[in-house]
């Protein structure tokens, strides 16, 4: 077994020993005796692996399933309720992410309270502690991004500790503390790329990358730009040549040293730690779980750098120049991918691609598996929903999907890209724009590196001005496209204050396409949107339930269960007390 893979086999055993109790019940497990465990480097190394379990596929569930680009197709699930402003003060995912994050923080705090017991050189101990501080900050990034003010817990709590029943800490104070921790971690960690048994561990640049993300999310533009620039100047990272392969087993960092793009990953290995993304996007068992929304389809530019349609971005802009390369009559389903940014076909399944979703939507046989994808399958348009993968929106993701394992449950072991070099480039570009310092040189160092990889027309400031396109809009679009289905969409929407997108109806292809190629509109009773697209789920404007209240929904509620245990937590604005 390769050293790096061998090291991370411990994750499964150690996760099982981790604390899973609620926030106010997090005490060291009796099965782990702190007085006897913390003695050797091997024990410190093993203890950090429990903390690394914070990096998992669940981050995609949160950041995409709760946003509007990837509609969550599990009808009884709660993620789609968040995306449509219909969630309450408790239950999944409101309570679960509070509890999960604090359980992860408990593991980190337990390590940090005990690591100095080991009889090994201080610099070695500090290196492990620095890794754990980065992971702890990562969990606080999630907490502050969702709930705003949260309890700042930097030690293992006891029932008698005043913090246990104290108020929440202001978000700005928590952010300051996170950034300070990242500075400490960056000083203690090596700047060399981890090798051998240490592959997958966080180094100095991982600490600075998390610092850049935290700073950007919290509008610390100068701090974000500086941290991102340090990573860019480290000469430790570069873009992986093949965008598609980056999200497959081929690029797993434990086996492929050519992958110099991944900075922090959720590590997976066959038969040891596996996930189910392929099955969730195209397994023929009724509904797929992640459904690309039509707004994501519309967001992809044409190959000349101009918009295919005005979309939500330019809905009120009558001067933007649309691309002549796109047929806006949208005569066929396949037309959506014609002359579009190549990343569209590498992210959203296009006609002609290999297909393991059983019988697709092509009229005719209901039982024969379709090896090549042609048309989307909607529940109700064929006799047996379980003969194929039914999309709620008429679109499917291909990013992260390995067709060879899609028919299995938890058959995937490709790494999850938690934070990669492409995001650092995007952070730097956005932060410099916010500082009023964006230039064409910076675009060429950042955004255009991403576009060169896939053969896409470069972003040119003079062209954007001539075409009536807004630079901030296009920077946001670039981030949405490059990082689609990677777990950051919800946090980006919150940062940009674009929550109104989540209150829009969930739509699919143009009705004329669906009727012509599939025979009927599966959601005819829901009517059509202003573009003539079919509507799966209506917003309040169409008599449905999807909505977004900017005075309320930019923060999740403090879970009722936590407030019962600690009334001093209070509640976020406009959520029922």
List keywords for this structure.
22 helices; two-stranded antiparallel sheet; Serine Threonine Protein Phosphatase 5, Tetratricopeptide repeat; mainly alpha
Largest beta-sheet details:
2 strands, antiparallel
CATH class of the domain at 41-237: Mainly Alpha
Can you count the beta strands?
Answer: 8
Low-confidence blocks of residues = 1-31
Count of DSSP H/I helices? 22
Q: What is the CATH architecture annotation of the domain at 41-237?
A: Alpha Horseshoe
Alpha-beta classification: mainly alpha
Give the ordered list of helices and strands.
Answer: HHHHHEHHHHHHEHEEHHEEHHHHHHEHEH
The CATH topology of the domain at 41-237 is given as Serine Threonine Protein Phosphatase 5, Tetratricopeptide repeat
**What gyration radius follows from the Cα positions, in whole Å?**
24 Å
Beta-strand residue fraction: 5-15%
Distance between the termini: 54 Å
Shape category: globular
Helix proportion: 25-40%
> Strands across the major sheet, in which order?
1-4
Average pLDDT number: 92
């Amino acid at each position: 077994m390769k050293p790096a893979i061998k090291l991370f086999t411990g994750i499964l055993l150690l996760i099982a020993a981790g604390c899973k109790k609620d926030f106010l019940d997090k005490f060291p497990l009796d099965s782990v005796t702190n007085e006897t465990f913390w003695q050797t480097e091997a024990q410190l190394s093993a203890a950090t692996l429990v903390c690394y379990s914070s990096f998992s596929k669940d981050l995609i569930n949160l950041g995409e399933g709760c946003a509007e680009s990837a509609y969550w197709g599990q009808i009884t699930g709660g993620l789609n309720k968040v995306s449509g402003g219909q969630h309450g003060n408790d239950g999944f995912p409101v309570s679960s992410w509070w509890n999960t994050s604090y359980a992860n923080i408990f593991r980190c705090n337990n390590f940090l309270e005990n690591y100095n017991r080991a009889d090994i050189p201080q610099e070695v101990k500090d290196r492990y502690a620095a890794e754990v501080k980065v992971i702890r900050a990562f969990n606080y990034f999630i907490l502050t991004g969702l709930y705003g003010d949260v309890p700042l817990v930097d030690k293992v709590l006891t029932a008698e500790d005043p913090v246990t029943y104290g108020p929440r800490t202001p978000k700005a104070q928590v952010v300051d503390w996170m950034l300070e921790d990242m500075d400490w971690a960056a000083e203690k960690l090596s700047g060399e790329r981890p090798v051998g048994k240490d592959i997958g561990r966080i180094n100095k640049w991982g600490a600075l990358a998390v610092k850049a993300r935290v700073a950007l999310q919290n509008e610390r533009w100068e701090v974000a730009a500086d941290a991102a620039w340090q990573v860019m100047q480290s000469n430790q990272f570069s873009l992986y040549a093949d965008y598609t392969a980056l999200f497959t087993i081929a690029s797993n960092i434990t086996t492929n040293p050519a992958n110099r793009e991944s900075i922090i990953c959720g590590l997976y290995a066959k038969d040891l730690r596996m996930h189910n993304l392929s099955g969730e996007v195209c397994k023929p068992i009724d509904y797929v779980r992640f459904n690309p929304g039509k707004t994501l389809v519309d967001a992809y530019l044409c190959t000349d750098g101009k918009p295919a349609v005005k979309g939500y971005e330019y809905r009120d802009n009558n001067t933007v120049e649309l691309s002549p390369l796109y047929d806006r009559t949208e005569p066929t389903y396949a037309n959506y991918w014609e002359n579009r940014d190549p990343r569209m076909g590498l992210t959203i399944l296009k006609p002609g691609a290999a297909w393991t979703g059983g019988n697709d939507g092509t009229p005719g046989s209901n039982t024969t598996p379709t090896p090549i994808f042609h048309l989307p399958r909607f529940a109700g348009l064929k006799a047996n929903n379980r003969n194929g993968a039914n999309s709620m929106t008429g679109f499917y993701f291909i990013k992260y999907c390995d067709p060879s394992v899609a028919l299995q449950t938890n058959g995937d072991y490709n790494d999850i890209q938690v934070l990669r070099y492409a995001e650092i480039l995007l952070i730097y570009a956005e932060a410099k724009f916010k500082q009023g310092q964006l230039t064409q040189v910076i675009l060429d160092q950042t955004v255009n590196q991403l576009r060169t990889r896939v053969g896409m027309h470069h972003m040119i400031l003079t062209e954007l001005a001539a075409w009536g396109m807004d630079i901030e809009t296009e920077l946001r679009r670039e981030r949405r496209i490059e990082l689609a289905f990677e777990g950051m969409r919800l946090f980006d929407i919150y940062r940009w204050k674009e929550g109104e997108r989540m209150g829009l109806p969930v739509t699919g292809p143009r009705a004329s396409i669906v009727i012509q190629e599939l025979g009927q509109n599966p959601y005819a009773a829901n009517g059509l949107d202003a573009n003539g697209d079919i509507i799966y789920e209506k917003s309040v404007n169409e008599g449905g339930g999807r909505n977004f209240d900017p005075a309320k929904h930019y923060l999740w509620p403090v879970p009722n269960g936590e407030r019962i245990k600690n009334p001093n937590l209070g509640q976020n604005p406009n959520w029922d007390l």
